[in-house]
Amino acid sequence: MIWVLMCVLISLSVADEVDTDLEHSRTIYVTENGPRLSVLSQQAKVVSQRGGNATLPCTIQRDQAMPPNRKMRIKWTKLTSDYLKEVDVFVAMDYHKRSYGRFYGRVHLQGSSPLDASLVITDITLEDYGRYKCEVIDGLEDGTTVVSLDLQGVLFPYSPRLGRYNLNFYEAERACRDQDAVVASFDQLYDAWRGGLDWCNAGWLSDGSVQYPITNPREPCGGKNTMPGVRNYGLREKEKNHFDVFCFTSNYKGRFYYLIQPSKLTYEEAVGACLNDGAEIAKVGQMYAAWKLLGYDRCDAGWLADGSVRYPISRPRRRCSPTEAAVRFSGFPDKKHKLYGVYCFKCQY
């Protein structure tokens, strides 16, 4: 009897140890039903122009089983051209809304419904071009989407009076700004190449790379046995390396025109003539915008603000760019020469 009782106690003890081991090695299976919140954009790209408005679409899709959350956070940022940083644009949480930096007072949510996170940008500037990220955070759930804002406009190569390959990156930025433009992006250069731009001088782009577009391969421009394309020198040191620059400009609010004068002018006389007409001497970017976007055509060489002499031809003809529509460049002549007219620009506010 004692022996039987001892066997029973030993059996219970072993069973208890087995149960304990099973308890510690239990496997738990979790079923994942997918995200309860997602963020979508109906358009990957929105096209506008300088001075216009644009709506960057962003729609929230939310599991109906999730309880309402007044603390859901919507944040818009702008990606830098090298994609290494994000610049704050707009943040909203319930009734609290804030716009940042140069976007202050120019951006707001469309808000057509509680799930509409679309961003409206007004009075668009050249610097607004680029890619924007819409991020929504709802408790532990979050989602993002990216939308591009493209601008109608024109790209043009630029070098200063000093001549070819004299600009580091920061000087190139300033040179474009001085001509009512910004440093162009690779996408803008690529579009211009597809449109027929052929230029054998390498220039800075906004991402810090140096490239140039070739539609007619030839020996001094990468070799005549190479394929047409955008030639790429890669990323260069922004302070040490010197090249030309590709600038980009868009529509303007104002009037670009050739000022009729009784005689030809020196540069200083040209500046004064525009001022006397209630205007200012025009910039290179304004001439390109008038030529490309408005079809401006004038076969008279005239001074521009940077001291260069140019004239825009949209209808090629004998003695006026007979082979192609283009902005013709006559160089940087001595500013004391009385050989040219002047192009003026009058702002409209």
From TrEMBL:
One of its GO terms (molecular function) is hyaluronic acid binding. It comes from the Eukaryota. It is found in: Secreted, Extracellular space, Extracellular matrix. PROSITE patterns: IG_LIKE (PS50835), LINK_1 (PS01241), LINK_2 (PS50963). GO terms for cellular component: extracellular space; perineuronal net; synapse. InterPro entries: C-type_lectin-like/link_sf (IPR016186), CTDL_fold (IPR016187), Hyaluronan_bind_Proteoglycan (IPR050691), Ig-like_dom (IPR007110), Ig-like_dom_sf (IPR036179), Ig-like_fold (IPR013783), Ig_sub (IPR003599), Ig_V-set (IPR013106). Transmembrane segments: none annotated. Keywords: Disulfide bond, Extracellular matrix, Glycoprotein, Hyaluronic acid, Immunoglobulin domain, Repeat, Secreted, Signal. It holds the Pfam family V-set. Residues 35-152 form the Ig-like domain. GO terms for biological process: cell adhesion; central nervous system development; glial cell differentiation; positive regulation of neuroblast proliferation; skeletal system development. The keyword Glycoprotein applies. Residues 154-249, 254-346 form the Link domain. Its main location: secreted. The keyword Disulfide bond applies. Residues 1-15 form the signal peptide. Belongs to the HAPLN family. Stabilizes the aggregates of proteoglycan monomers with hyaluronic acid in the extracellular cartilage matrix. This is Hyaluronan and proteoglycan link protein 1. It comes from Merluccius polli. The gene is HAPLN1_0.
